[in-house]
Design goal:
Elements: H1 4-29, H2 33-59
Helix pairs in contact: 1-2
Length: about 60
Amino acid sequence: MSDPIINIAGNRMLQLKQDIAALRECLVACADENNKKKIRSEIMEKETYYNILADRQRLG
């Protein structure tokens, strides 16, 4: 039987990867420097959260 916590983390990681990819596309299309700064910040937050989940899966 698989661990439901690992399954939830895996699903969340997939969603984060999709969100990051979408934000990167927005970043390329964005012309306003203030919006680019906000998008970069959001990408960094999501990447950090993704890395935390990946570490938990590796250690778990």
